[in-house]
Amino acid sequence: MGSRGRRKQRWCTDESHHHQPLTPLMEGPDDLEMQLRPDRNKKESSGGWDTIRDWFRLQKKCAIMPASDHHHPSSDSSSTSSNNNSSSNSRQDMRLLLGVLACPLAPIPLPHYQTDNNHHQLPPPINKHIPIETCTAHYIIQQYLAATGWSTSKKVKEVKNMYAAGTVNMVYRQTEVSSLEDGEVVNKTVGRSGGGSGGDGEKGCFVVWAMWPGRWSLELVVGGNKVVAGSDSKIVWRHTPWLGTHAAKGPLRPLRRIIQGLDPKSTASLFTGKAAQCMGEKRIGEEDCFVIKVAADRASVMERNDGPAGAEVIRHVLYGYFSQRSGLLIYLEDSHLTRVLVNPQEAINVDHRNYDPYADDLAPAVYWETTIGSSIGDYRDVDGVLIAHRGRTVATVFRFGETSSQQYWRTTMEELWTIHDVVFDVPGLSVDSFIPPADIWDSHPS
């Protein structure tokens, strides 16, 4: 237990975060307006998309500003303004990084046979009533469990919880803008390659605690910002320093960081549900892989929508790439398409009872497609189970559909992550460790 005390002390070295309350954030980019208007009711939030709107407005200003405006040779006021703009951009870049990369969730919940019963129960047996694509996915996952050692290790059959700690390096790469000018497509790069304050990115660290079934907690500190997320098996909540407490909408979904090589059983369970389909084969680097797809159905997608005035999730798909040579998961990719109104006020008079986000006669909107791809490797033995200890995640946010400007924006960001410590069956960890903060109920209807 001494090492646990040292881990706790590690998180308290930053005085700016020592007294921060445990309050969570919404899925997707976070809401700057919540910081500017602390008295605003959390239930009025439009899904956290105001921050990403502000971020792209800043990028547009940089795109149209002449070079002389960026570096005036003699004006002190221009220099001060440039520094202020740089600071504002850096702050917004970090918020975008954390909003996309810090704690994304998987597209679908774990199957009931795991969440309702025992974490170590195997997926249901293959039978003739299951489509061949799903049967093939089940077979591949059985090989994956055997490859990691989870299905053969005697110790993990008694495991009730786990802990992992590691480091991250997040980098905002660049934003590319494509536009139509005089009948020709013109491409330009906006922003600079680097992190929140430097070209090498922002370094940080994180801890993950998990107790099966369905309980987990994440703390991540990067660039002076602390992000917290968690689940008590009934509700998922998240937090950033500039946003209040919010619950994630829709069904209970697992943390993406856990399924990218940290917890083989949760990964296996996610890819053996009714939604799992084997999509064939694909080569990733030097490895030939089997590809398994899972996607959120329309009912669960509708549950995650913020209504007419907010963001509407169109689809959310996850692909797992399992090596044919080793049987291990070596790449994870998910794509998340969301529709956001250009002017949310235009939706005030929409009939909520007959609202259909798939209708063609809605208010003007833009579409955001977020694609996150994670290379997973450096598998090491931990109590007889192979756990991934290193990886690289690249996220791309693609903005399109705005007819007035005929512009397409593609923003790229990256995270390098390393796991330094994994422990199964942490003494003293209980369900009380995953109780949501009290103010979560202010934003979650009873």
Automatic annotation (TrEMBL):
This is OLC1v1022190C1. Residues 1-48, 66-91 are annotated as: Disordered. Residues 34-48 have a biased composition (Basic and acidic residues). The lineage of its organism: Eukaryota, Viridiplantae, Streptophyta, Embryophyta, Tracheophyta. Residues 1-10 have a biased composition (Basic residues). InterPro entries: DUF620. Residues 75-90 have a biased composition (Low complexity). It holds the Pfam family DUF620.
